[in-house]
Amino acid sequence: MLSLGVRNIFVCNRTVKNAVILANHYNKLIESHAISELDSANAPHTRVRVLPSFDSPWPKEFRQPSMIVSSIPTQNVDGSPTNFTIPDDWLKSPTGGVLIEVSLLELT
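RE: above sequence
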């Protein structure tokens, strides 16, 4: 997403600590200009931010997302369903958008 010019990326993970680690990693790459595809003029305005939980309201200072990429599995490790749905608050972009689901269902 960074190489495509997306400037505001939000990460939400079941473990906030992992989301913070991921955001910090990419923000360091942005700051050090280590992503060659990232336009240097956009770098100061590009950040990866963390949403602390799936119940978090969408930050008011940012427009609703026009692209959501989800990779949440359909079941927990114990086989029980996750029953996850994207929060309605995240789906209110007035221009519409796209939701991409990339998780894999493992059949055994």
